[in-house]
Amino acid sequence: MPLPQVVALGGGHGLYTSLRALRPxxxxxxxxxxxxxxxxxxxxxxxxxxxxxxxxLRMALSALCEDTEWxxxxxxxxxxxxxxxxxxxxxxxxxxxxxxxWAHTGDVVGGLDWVARLLRAQGRVLPVSDEAVxxxxxxxxxxxxxxxxxxxAVATSHGRIVDLSLTPPSPHVPNATLDAxxxxxxxxLGPGSWYTSVLTHFLVPDVRQALVASSPRAILTLNISxxxxxxxxMGRVGEVAALRDLAPDFVPAVVLADSxxxxxxxxxxxIEDWGARLVVEPLRASTAIDRHDEVALAIxxxxxxxxxxxxxxxxx
Length: 316
Hints:
Blueprint: E1 5-10, H1 12-22, E2 28-33, H2 40-49, H3 55-63, H4 69-79, H5 93-105, H6 108-119, E3 124-127, E4 134-141, E5 144-149, H7 151-156, E6 160-167, H8 175-183, E7 186-189, H9 194-198, H10 205-213, E8 218-221, H11 235-246, E9 254-258, H12 266-274, E10 277-281, H13 294-308
Parallel strand pairs: 1-2, 1-7, 2-3, 7-8, 8-9, 9-10
Antiparallel strand pairs: 4-5, 4-6
Helix pairs in contact: 1-3, 1-13, 3-4, 5-6, 8-10, 11-12
């Protein structure tokens, strides 16, 4: 029996982890990746060439590489960074390759598909938009409120984020991205930097509409800790509240949380009030306080897919 078609949305290390966990439970996996990054190698290429920042897309492609010598070798090459002290210093090889393919093909989606073929990827990587976006936030702290602009500024600003916006406000979304969400058996959001990797997708009007339509098939994976500056002190209840405030018409079928986050009952009550179903599993990696264990997350997704009613799943 075929495994379900799954779409996972996010960016950076959070999306990398969810993709690695989803690979054993889906034979038709698509990553939809945020394109707001303005720092590091991605930011430099974005500024110099006016392109979509490639870094998070590169990470997602690396997560989907074929588990053979061929696939893992090309994955490691893509992830290699130059350390030269010159103009190439800090650039990831994969970022340059992706930028080169975009220049050659003139097609963001087509260029990513060529890299996926090189990696013999188990799945596809698509951008949430095929034009770069700038995320802005209004931050409140003890001195008042202020606006900050750019993903790096938002991610590193101390204070409470009370409003998010994008420039341009309605970026163009590839048809492939919208088609992937519409046809997916399950749509997985999170984990990841809550505002700059997860909630950003709801700021793109066409994607938000698609996600709301997918609500009965949506799975929200909450974070493990508040290691990110942008969400420090929020906790899991705060993550849920931030998403509800931004997209009140989105109610996922299932919210997946680590067992350490439900002790006081506040999260369970928040999920019940939201109208979603809470699934609790031990998900924390033994090697880091803020990371999911890929194997535990894969097992949890199998169980969640049963709850959602997807075909072909039995708890191992």
